[in-house]
Amino acid sequence: MKFFIDTANLAQIKEAHDLGVLDGVTTNPSLMAKEGISGQENVINHYKAICEITDGDVSAEVIATTYDEIVAEGLELAKLHEKIVVKVPMIKDGVKAIKFFTSKGIRTNCTLIFSPGQALLAAKAGATYVSPFIGRLDDVSTDGLTLIEDIRTIFDNYGYTTEILAASVRHPMHIINCAKLGADVITAPLSAITGLLKHPLTDNGLAQFLADHAKAAGK
Ligand code: G3P
Predict the structure, then answer these.
(1) Which residue's CA is the closest to the ligand 1 atom numbered 9?
(2) Cα of 111 from ligand 1 centre, angstroms
(3) Is residue 219 pLDDT above 90, yes or no?
(4) pTM of the entire predicted model
């Protein structure tokens, strides 16, 4: 399973990269705003800076919501760096734009997926990734993981190569459950990724090993 980090924070992207487990980065307009990035030049420079840190794909989301504008914005984003994947919202004009980008060999990530039917449409349009938002479904008392399971079944039934990029991941158990269900990729905040490291028995065991070693060495 691939690990993407869901942030526009350069320090956190670097930390995940340095851990050696990072396969890519996803951003969205809210995450860019959180870092105070605005204005075309700053946005472009920030995407380029992210691409310099990571070895993998970097999802850059369009702001446009009409076909012509999505295509124009997506073409500009795709030109920035070979790692850029154009992130397009799951709306009618977005699906049409994904079909266009696919025909031009430009990779896409269809975002704001909340139903299996939306994922199926995006896959038919040729999306490289679909991003089902599991945490936001959990927030409204709907099981986000069931969506991952349903999309996995549908894609496998028909051999769609579109990758399931589980998004809106909030904690380590989301990652574990997505892995069990066969999501191709998870995108998560750094805290959820590093949360996988933690177990009290590991901490206790290590403390014991070090204490026994010190005792044997007469310290
Ligand atoms: O990047 C899209 C998605 O991961 C957002 O997550 O936590 O804002 O629901 P969240």
Answers:
(1) 168
(2) 10
(3) no
(4) 0.96
